[in-house]
Design brief:
Blueprint lengths: L9 E4 L3 H12 L4 E4 L3 H20 L12 E4 L10 E4 L5 H12 L8 E4 L5 H5 L8 E6 L8 E6 L5 H13 L3 E6 L6 H17 L5 H12 L5 H8 L1 H15 L8 H8 L15 H4 L1
Parallel strand pairs: 1-2, 1-4, 2-3, 4-5, 5-6, 7-8
Antiparallel strand pairs: 6-7
Helix pairs in contact: 1-2, 6-8, 6-9, 9-10
């Protein structure tokens, strides 16, 4: 008999930047979460981060009123995913890693449980190929910070069935999120447009045309960008951005997606953005 998914937790795989933010979003809407990662240290760090993000979301009036936060369970055991309402995969932006995780999960959860890959650009059909039930797979692209941004790009693969689309859009509605459903392609809509702009912004710094601060100041003041492209890149994580650009370049062959030297150098030096304390900006005082 199929599980009553309405009463079950949402499972999130990956306690990194996006997985933690997605878990915060679900918990803040009053729904329970099972958060899975391979290491206890990562889970402990995620729990502390989630507490901070929930406070931030309350301060920004971004949580539904009158709802107590959902219950968080952290685990390193994939058996805890059984019976989940939906499973959100939020591991690194590497195709083989994502496929491995999704294949394992497909063998644990019910046949009608949506498998959601939170990818910034890998085509859903590519990830679905090895799965026993490709109709279960759908993509989401939560923007960071997910607990503050209420619009979510949803990617329907060629084999994604209507029941999966309905289940995921209903789940997002329960999270007070608006869904925009798009067709599958490398990078979808947001990454195809945003990531080459971030790449070009970094290239301008590399060419000594302008400082990171001036690039962002011009984009905010003249063109209405909310934070500026390079602060956005730091928030995404420069390693994540490089991985996404490389995947787009591999699939499209378009030079605008080839990661520029400035981004590659920062990743090589471990300057990954906010999460590491340094990127285009210095965050070490805020982290101390």
């Amino acid at each position: 008999m199929a599980t009553d998914h309405q009463q079950c937790p949402v499972a999130v795989i990956g306690a990194g930047v996006m997985g933690t933010a997605i878990a915060t979003t679900v918990l803040g809407s009053g729904l329970p979460v099972v958060l899975l990662d391979v290491g206890q240290a990562e889970l402990d760090r995620a729990e502390r981060t989630i507490e901070i993000q929930l406070r931030h979301a309350r301060m920004m009036d971004a949580l539904p009123s009158g709802r107590a936060p959902g219950r968080l369970v952290t685990t390193t055991s994939s058996s805890a995913l059984a019976g989940a309402r939906a499973v959100v995969e939020a591991v690194v932006e590497h195709e083989a890693t994502k496929v491995g995780v999704l294949t394992d999960v497909a063998g644990i959860v019910d046949a009608d449980t949506p498998l959601i890959s939170n990818t910034s650009g890998i085509p859903i059909d590519t990830l679905a190929d090895p799965l026993p039930r490709p109709q279960q797979l759908i993509g989401t692209h939560f923007m960071n910070p997910a607990y503050l941004i209420d619009l979510v790009e949803v990617i329907r693969g060629r084999r994604t069935d209507e029941a999966t689309v309905t289940a995921v859009t209903e789940l997002l509605a329960a999270l007070n999120r608006r869904a925009v459903v798009v067709r599958d392609s490398p990078g979808f809509v947001t990454s195809r447009l945003l990531h080459p702009m971030l790449n070009d912004a970094a290239r301008l710094v590399d060419e000594d045309v302008a400082t990171a601060e001036d690039v962002d100041r011009l984009m905010v003041g003249c063109l209405g960008h909310r934070t500026g492209p390079l602060r956005t890149a730091d928030l995404i994580g420069l390693d994540n951005l490089v991985d996404s650009l490389a995947a787009l370049y591999e699939r499209t062959g378009e030079q605008r997606y080839r990661p520029c030297e400035q981004l590659l150098a920062k990743v090589h030096d471990g300057h990954l953005g906010q999460k590491s304390g340094r990127g285009f900006y210095d965050y070490r005082e805020a982290l101390s």
